[in-house]
Amino acid sequence: MRLLVVEDDPDLNRQIATALEDAGYAVDRAFDGEEGHHLGDTEPYDAVVLDIGLPKKDGISVLEQWRRDGRVMPVLILTARDRWSDKVQGFDAGADDYVPKPFHMEEVLARLRALLRRATGHASSELLCGPVRLDTRAGRVTLDGHPIKLTSHEYRLLAYLMHHQGRVVSRTELVEHLYDQDFDRDSNTIEVFVGRLRKKLGSDVIQTVRGLGYVLMAPDGA
């Protein structure tokens, strides 16, 4: 999953981005409203953390423009404002949830997990596909109840496919949603990680649809 953090405070921006990366997300960062709007308008993010009080262009205006332009990614707004009217304004602009400052990072992570689940039609924090179980809270994967050790990139790829299981996902979509904007998109990294996951989870869990991409499906009889 690829996320965007738009926050003008450098320290807070870094803290949020680090926490998200540690949780297994690819993260891009912006420090003002204009930069944030441009990234959200041109890159396919799975969710956005958006501060309301931004320089150059405030967060409410950024969000309103995204929604007018048809951008539907979930948006979690951050605000230091306590007035209920500001929260209402954020929701009316198209926000999906909010966290007031100061906040605990675990709450931000939990709210983002919930937004990502709802956006892909999942109600539980545990995603299941046959014998494979992925716990989004703990970042753990098991196969038939036995823990499977994955690298961060393998976990990121599996998590995206688990959120979108049953649907064919192209290599281009995977690259766009699993790596930040500085990633070398000409590499064959996706194929390498798919191969590694097949060795760890079974060759029939991730299927190749020739010319289209990959699909995660429960094996027959699972």
Briefly say what this structure is.
The chain is α/β, with parallel strands linked by helices and 222 residues long.
Kindly describe this structure:
- Helix 6 crosses helix 8.
- It contains eight helices and eleven strands.
- It has two domains: 118 residues, Response regulator (Rossmann fold, 3-Layer(aba) Sandwich), CATH 3.40.50.2300; 91 residues, Arc Repressor Mutant, subunit A.
- 41% of the residues lie in helices and 21% in strands.
- The protein starts with a strand and ends in a 6-residue tail after the last strand.
- Strands 2-1-3-4-5 form a five-stranded parallel sheet, with helices on both faces. Strands 6-7-8-9 form a four-stranded antiparallel sheet, covered by helices on one side. A two-stranded antiparallel sheet has the order 10-11.
- By secondary structure, the chain is an alpha/beta fold.
- The model has no long low-confidence stretch (mean pLDDT 91).
- Strand 1, helix 1 and strand 2 form a beta-alpha-beta unit.
- It comes from Methylopila jiangsuensis.
- GO terms for molecular function: phosphorelay response regulator activity; transcription cis-regulatory region binding.
- This is DNA-binding response regulator.
